[in-house]
Design goal:
elongated; about 70% helix; mainly alpha
């Protein structure tokens, strides 16, 4: 049986650009935002942690599988500022996107 976190991760992975917000995901899963937060807390995670994990996966995948520029990858996963993407990526992996590639 899928956890709530897994269901959310699937929804986020289906987004081509950026990611859905908590309210949209809750509505798609037929629960209130409050219930969704509570279920995630009981699973020991949060919506933001799941989003962060999904963005990390997507960024790594795009870096490894494509020749897209770092700017394009940042844009595709929902960062309007490339510098913020660099900081997030370094936090996730300990490396800059270029070093990782």
């Amino acid at each position: 049986n899928e956890t709530m976190a897994e269901k959310i991760l699937c929804q986020i992975r289906l987004q081509e650009y950026g990611y859905p917000d908590l309210e949209t995901v809750a509505k798609n899963l037929n629960v209130s935002a409050r219930t969704l937060r509570r279920k995630l807390a009981s699973e020991g995670t949060s919506f933001q942690a799941i989003v962060s994990e999904a963005l990390k996966e997507k960024a790594i995948n795009l870096l490894v599988e494509t020749n897209l520029s770092v700017e394009k990858i940042a844009e595709q996963i929902g960062y309007s500022d490339t510098a913020n993407f660099y900081h997030a990526f370094k936090r996730w992996t300990g490396k800059t996107p270029s070093e990782y590639r």
